[in-house]
Automatic annotation (TrEMBL):
<keyword id="KW-0812">Transmembrane</keyword>
<feature type="transmembrane region" description="Helical">
    <location>
        <begin position="112"/>
        <end position="131"/>
    </location>
</feature>
<protein>
    <recommendedName>
        <fullName>Integral membrane protein</fullName>
    </recommendedName>
</protein>
<feature type="transmembrane region" description="Helical">
    <location>
        <begin position="56"/>
        <end position="80"/>
    </location>
</feature>
<feature type="transmembrane region" description="Helical">
    <location>
        <begin position="22"/>
        <end position="44"/>
    </location>
</feature>
<feature type="transmembrane region" description="Helical">
    <location>
        <begin position="87"/>
        <end position="106"/>
    </location>
</feature>
<feature type="compositionally biased region" description="Basic and acidic residues">
    <location>
        <begin position="154"/>
        <end position="163"/>
    </location>
</feature>
<feature type="region of interest" description="Disordered">
    <location>
        <begin position="141"/>
        <end position="163"/>
    </location>
</feature>
<keyword id="KW-1133">Transmembrane helix</keyword>
<keyword id="KW-0472">Membrane</keyword>
Length: 163
């Protein structure tokens, strides 16, 4: 039976369900800064390869910024994991940060056969992650003991309700 109280409570409940928490906003901010920093890297590299050798200094500074923000993102993702019980941002961040670390040393070693394709893949991965963190509501997942587990009795109860 639907009561007047139910119809008033439902919109507020669904609004709360889509509300992103502070930990979620922090992760979104760090991922956004990370994307902005990494997008500059191929630009500086391209300018350097066109003959402006000073741009390698900008690319090196960008590399330090990108990897530092990456490590901050690991911390933000751990906070999201602990506070919101959502592990996927941590797992995906770990992949991106591992790729960036390899990328950094490949750049220093001048191993362009690895550095350029890995750089492109890392940028694509980070842009996908950016879309993901902004698309999903980052809210606290209920404790496993509070999640509804379907039981064998439920279909019977529904049939009884229908009758
Ligand atoms: C598509 C993206 C990227 C391209 C096309 C690119 C390209 C390059 C090129 C052409 C060099 C010069 C290598 C040489 O002269 O031997 C270089 C160096 C370097 N890159 Fe990248 N790169 C990219 C992304 C990144 C990223 C994301 C990082 C950091 C995680 C990074 C870190 C470095 C470092 C540390 C160096 C060495 C700088 C130095 O010698 O002072 N690169 N990169």
């Amino acid at each position: 039976m639907v009561t007047a109280a139910d119809s008033v409570a439902t919109p507020a409940r669904s609004e709360a369900a889509h509300r992103t928490t502070l930990a979620g906003w922090i992760l979104r901010a760090v991922v956004s800064a990370h994307v902005v920093a990494i997008v500059g890297q191929p630009v500086f590299a391209g300018v350097y390869l066109s003959g402006d050798y000073d741009s390698l200094g900008w690319h090196a500074a960008g590399a330090n910024a990108v990897t530092s923000i990456g490590y901050l993102q690991v911390i933000a993702a751990i906070i999201v994991w602990i506070r919101l019980r959502q592990v996927w941002p941590f797992v995906t961040t770990l992949g991106v940060v591992a790729a960036e670390t390899v990328q950094y040393f490949a750049g220093l070693a001048g191993a362009l056969w690895l550095h350029i394709p890995l750089g492109v893949m890392t940028i694509v991965a980070l842009v996908v992650q950016f879309i993901d963190v902004w698309r999903r509501p980052l809210q606290r997942r209920p404790h496993p003991s509070q999640e509804r587990v379907p039981t064998a009795e439920q279909p019977e109860r529904k049939e009884a309700d229908d009758a």
